[in-house]
Known about the structure:
It is built from six helices and five strands, in the order βαβαβαβαβαα. Helix 2 (47-59) runs antiparallel to helix 6 (151-160). It has helices spanning 15-24, 47-59, 77-84, 96-112, 132-140, 151-160; strands at 3-8, 30-36, 68-73, 88-93, 117-122. It is α/β, with parallel strands linked by helices. A five-stranded parallel β-sheet has the order 3-2-1-4-5, sandwiched between helices.
Amino acid sequence: MRVAVYPGSFDPITNGHLDIIGRAVPVFDRVVVAVLRNPRKEPLLPADTRAEVIRATVSGDDRLRDHVDVETFEGLTVDACRRLGARWIVRGLRALGDFDVEIQLAHNNRKLAPEIDTVFFMTALEHGYISSTLVREIALFGGDVSELIPPAALDAIRAALGR
């Protein structure tokens, strides 16, 4: 079975992330969206909430429902891949700047785990400007992010911000 891990903070998951998941599903038998619990960052949404938001979003999509699992993890992505039986790491690229960072991560992961490859998918043009950081900032200042994220993420952000 071809298992891939799509790691990230997903704080919150965006329509760009969902686009990458949708592109990965036809390539792999199973895609595990791995939500990072990063003790060095203060997220807007707790990891368990982020994972539940993704589960709710995926369960409502016929294309994704039977092919995507959601897990939380701490530590190295390659260790999560090994634990989950994944031989591929999925990463999304929006622009050239993403590639600079992602190629370094891919090379380091390959050094740590030569049996695991990184696969890059380009985000659709209409999602190329979306980032979780931008979504959080807009939401914190009261802006409308409803077209940038799935409904479950919007509900979670509103709850976290007391709106």
